[in-house]
């Protein structure tokens, strides 16, 4: 991954990133400063369901790294990792 960062913050979406818009905006500002870490979202729900939830988040938040569907769907840099699904 060409834009790899030294740290990943992996977070569930439901009841973790939802419900406190001000805190989410503060987190996004922090993650953008000096690009010290990347945010990876994890959910047991399928990708389409997660994308529907994310459409309600601030427009500045466009996560590129997702682990969905109980770990069976992985996206890095906005692209599906096909090899992962083949496992």
Walk me through what this model shows:
The chain is of the alpha/beta class. The chain has 3 helices and 5 strands, in the order βαβαβββα. A 5-stranded mixed β-sheet has the order 1-2-3-4-5. The two termini are 20 Å apart. It has helices spanning 21-32, 47-54, 82-86, and strands spanning 7-12, 37-42, 65-68, 73-76, 79-80. Helices cover 29% and strands 25% of the residues. The model has no long low-confidence stretch (mean pLDDT 84). Strand 3 (65-68) and strand 4 (73-76) form a beta hairpin. It has a single domain (7-86), classed as Rossmann fold.
Given helix and strand content, the structural type is alpha/beta
- CATH homologous superfamily placement: HAD superfamily/HAD-like
Summarize the helix and strand pattern as letters.
EHEHEEEH
* CATH-defined architecture: 3-Layer(aba) Sandwich
Give the helix/strand layout.
Blueprint: E1 7-12, H1 21-32, E2 37-42, H2 47-54, E3 65-68, E4 73-76, E5 79-80, H3 82-86
Parallel strand pairs: 1-2, 2-3
Antiparallel strand pairs: 3-4, 4-5
């Amino acid at each position: 991954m060409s834009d790899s960062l030294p740290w990943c913050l992996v977070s569930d979406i439901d009841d973790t990133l939802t419900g406190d818009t001000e805190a989410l905006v503060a987190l996004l500002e922090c993650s953008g400063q000096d690009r010290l870490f990347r945010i990876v979202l994890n959910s047991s729900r399928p990708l389409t369901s997660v994308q529907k939830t994310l459409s309600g988040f601030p427009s500045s938040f466009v996560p590129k790294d997702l682990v969905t569907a109980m770990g069976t769907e992985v996206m890095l840099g906005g692209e599906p990792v096909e090899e992962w699904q083949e496992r």
